[in-house]
Amino acid sequence: MNAHDSEKVIGTLEQQGYARVQEEDAAGLILYNTCSIRDKAEQKVFHRLNEYKKLQGEGKKFAVLGCVAQQEGEKIFEKAPYVSMVAGSASYRNLPEMLRRLEAGEERITGLDDRQTDLTFETEFTARSNPHRGYITIIEGCDKFCAYCVVPYTRGKERSRTAASVLVEAKKMVDLGFTEIQFLGQNVNSYRDPSGRMSFAELLVAVGELPGIRRVRFTTSHPRDFTRDIVQAIDDTPTLCDHIHLPVQSGSSAVLKAMSREYTREWYLERMSWIKAAKRDISITSDMIVGFPGETDADFEETITLVGEVKYDAVFAFKFSPRPNTPAVTMADSIPDELKSERLRILMDRQREIQREHYGRHLGEMQEVMVESYNPSRNQVVGRSSQNKTVNFSTAQIAQPPIGSYLSVRITQTLPNCLVGEAIADAEALPFVALQRVADFVVLN
Ligand code: SF4
C-alpha cells in the first residue's frame, strides 16, 4: 500500500512539473515516505533524517510522508528543523496545494488533520513502476482498531472510492497494456461503494471481465467482512486469481479477543471451509503474530493446530512488538523476547513442513505463469502463478519470453517455497516465438 502511495505521489509531482532523479544528490526536493509497520520505525526515520542534515546546506528541501509522519507530527520539525513538510497519507490529495506553498517559501507545512475525511486520494497521474501489473487502491483507512495496530490512527477512517471511478482507472490501465490488476485496501473486502452500485465481489467480477485483463488480485482481506460471494466470484470468473490472503493472526479465540479482531477461531475456520469447498484450487495465505501479551503455551498450541488444519500455502509470521499509541502497549503479561523467538521458530518450522508436503499437489500440473524476471545464474525464467506462487522454469522448447508475458509451464518439481518447471509452447506463447524469428531475420539483414 505504501509503495503504491509512492507511485501516486510521484505521479502527482511529475504532473506538477517536477522531474524524478535517481540520486538524492541531484534532487532539489527529497520526499521520504515512511511506514510504521516494523519495530522501532520512528527511530529509523529520525536516523535517516539525521543523514539528510548534511544536505541542507545545499539548498535542498525535505518532506516526510506516511505513517511515521502522521504519528510523530510536528515533533519532526523539532527534531529535524530542516524538514519543511510533514504529511500523513490522508492528506495526499492536498499535495499540489502543499507543494505550491513549499515553492512559495513556507517553512512549516503540515498535512495532519485529514484523518476524518470522507475523501480518497484519486489521481490519474500514478507513476506505476511495473508496466504489466498495477495496483488500484479501492478503500483507504481502517475502522477496525485491532489492539496492536497503528493504521486506524495513522491512515484515518475507512472510506471507499465509487465503483465507477475504480472501473475508469482499471479501463485506463488496460488501455495502457496492463494485464494484471491488484485491488488494495487495509481491509479490501470491507469495501462499500458510496454510490451503492456494486458489492466488493461484483466489483472484482466487473474488473475481471474487462477485455484484456488476465489477472485480478486483492489484498488484504479481513475475516470479519469475508463473505461467501467472494469465493463464488472466483469460481465463476477465470481472471480472478485463485489466491486469498486472509490473515488470522492467532489460532486462539482468547488471543483474538484480546487483539480485538472481532472473530473467533471457529468463525475463521468456517470461512476456510467455504474456500476449500470452491471448485477451483484456491491457495490460502495468512499473517500471524506470536507472543501477543497474555498468549499462553496453550494459546500458541492452538495457532499450531490451526496451521495444521488449514494447511496454508504461505504464512507471514512476526513476533509481537508494541506500536506507539495502541492499546496493546499497556497490556499486562508481556512475553519475554526469547519465548517469542522460540514460538516463531516452531511456527515457521511447522509451516515449512506443511508447504513441503502441500506443494506436492502441483507436481505434473500445467500452470499459467506470468513472467517476472530472468535468473542468468540458473538459466531460469522466474514467474508467478495465479496462486501467487513463484515458479522457476526453463524454456528449452521456446524462445526466452518477455517480462509480462504468460506461458504454460509444466511443474516438474516442488520445493517448500517455490515450484520448478518447464515452459511448454502453447497458443499463448506462439505469437512471441514468431516475433523472435522475424527480429532475428531483421538483424541478419
Ligand atoms: S484491520 Fe488491519 S489495518 Fe485495521 S486495525 Fe486491524 S490490523 Fe490494523
UniProtKB/TrEMBL annotation:
The residues covered by the MTTase N-terminal domain are: 1-104
Q: Which residues form the TRAM domain?
A: 360-425
A single cellular component GO annotation:
cytosol
- The reply to whether Isomerase figures as a keyword in the UniProt entry is no
Q: Where is the Radical SAM core domain?
A: 128-357
Self-association and partners: Monomer.
GO molecular function annotation: 4 iron, 4 sulfur cluster binding; metal ion binding; tRNA-2-methylthio-N(6)-dimethylallyladenosine(37) synthase activity
Free-text cofactor note: Binds 2 [4Fe-4S] clusters. One cluster is coordinated with 3 cysteines and an exchangeable S-adenosyl-L-methionine.
**Cited HAMAP family:** tRNA_metthiotr_MiaB (MF_01864)
- Pfam families, A to Z: Radical_SAM, TRAM, UPF0004
Q: Where are the transmembrane segments?
A: none
Instruction: Name any cofactors this protein relies on.
Output: [4Fe-4S] cluster
Q: What is its EC number?
A: 2.8.4.3
Q: Which residues bind [4Fe-4S] cluster?
A: C142, C146, C149
**Family of this protein:** Belongs to the methylthiotransferase family. MiaB subfamily.
Name listed for the protein in its UniProt record: tRNA-2-methylthio-N(6)-dimethylallyladenosine synthase
Q: List the SMART domains.
A: Elp3
The record's section on CDD domains has: Radical_SAM (cd01335)
- Which keywords does this chain's UniProt record carry? 4Fe-4S, Cytoplasm, Iron, Iron-sulfur, Metal-binding, S-adenosyl-L-methionine, Transferase, tRNA processing
> InterPro entries this protein is in?
Elp3/MiaA/NifB-like_rSAM, Methylthiotransferase, Methylthiotransferase_CS, Methylthiotransferase_N, Methylthiotransferase_N_sf, MiaB_methiolase, rSAM, rSAM_horseshoe
Catalyzes what?
N(6)-dimethylallyladenosine(37) in tRNA + (sulfur carrier)-SH + AH2 + 2 S-adenosyl-L-methionine = 2-methylsulfanyl-N(6)-dimethylallyladenosine(37) in tRNA + (sulfur carrier)-H + 5'-deoxyadenosine + L-methionine + A + S-adenosyl-L-homocysteine + 2 H(+)
